[in-house]
Design goal:
The chain is α+β, with helices and mostly antiparallel strands and about 200 residues long. Helix 5 crosses helix 6. The protein has 7 helices and 10 strands. The protein is globular. It folds into 2 domains: about 150 residues, Jelly Rolls, CATH 2.60.120; about 40 residues, Arc Repressor Mutant, subunit A (Orthogonal Bundle), CATH 1.10.10. The chain has a 6-stranded antiparallel sheet with strand order 1-2-9-4-7-10. Strands 3-8-5-6 form a 4-stranded antiparallel sheet, with no helix packed on it.
Length: about 200
């Protein structure tokens, strides 16, 4: 298996932690367990899509899709040789870059063609470029255009994220809300819109 992470450009790094590339041969019966990490992402399959396990059923993932926050372990297995390019957003990066709340997308993998047609059309051709690095450069260029027209960060949520991560999660949500100058309920609502999960779960 070959896995690599690439830093985004300065114009995009406020919303994207890194891009990643994965190439792997098919291993029949091998199941990978993915644990929640507080980040949403986008995955472009350049070979056979993986299968995910849900409600006792293995189901093929879309070829180009947005994956929301996951609230529990996710089981994946290959259906053939895998070749993927991905975007790992920052905790509130997807909502800022895409311009809409992502709370409804938690625990979901949604085809980009059903979610954001303009972005889907621009990313679809990225998969067909000659080399993975060309694909990453093109991907960064596409996201820069989205970053230029993005909605503003919710500063309340950004400050709350900084508080929680700085304390490695060892902080009360009531205290985070008090430092932000808002009620706990207001923080929870805005946090879920921007991050996809509650501040306590994050």
């Amino acid at each position: 298996m070959l896995y690599r992470q690439i830093r985004p450009s300065a114009a995009v790094e406020q919303h994207v932690e890194f891009y990643w590339m994965l190439e792997a041969s098919s291993i029949p019966g091998y199941v990978q367990r993915v644990i929640p990490d507080g980040r949403a992402g986008i995955v472009l399959n350049c070979a056979d899509p993986l299968e995910s396990h849900s409600n006792g059923i293995w189901k093929s993932q879309p070829e180009c899709f947005f994956v929301g926050q996951i609230t529990g372990p996710l089981l994946l297995r290959s259906a053939g040789p895998a070749k993927m390019i991905g975007i790992q957003f920052r905790p509130n990066g997807a909502a800022c870059l895409l311009g809409f709340p992502i709370s409804a997308l938690t625990d979901s993998a949604i085809g980009l063609d059903d979610l954001e047609q303009r972005l889907f059309r621009q990313l679809e051709w990225v998969r067909d470029l000659a080399s993975p690095m060309q694909s990453i450069q093109a991907l960064d260029h596409v996201l820069r255009s989205f970053a230029e027209r993005r909605r503003m960060d919710d500063r309340l949520v950004s400050n709350a994220l900084r508080d929680i991560e700085h304390a490695d999660g060892c902080v009360s949500i009531k205290g985070v809300a008090a430092r932000a100058g808002c009620s706990t309920r207001q923080l929870e609502r805005r946090f879920e819109d921007s991050v996809g999960i509650s501040p306590k779960l994050f």
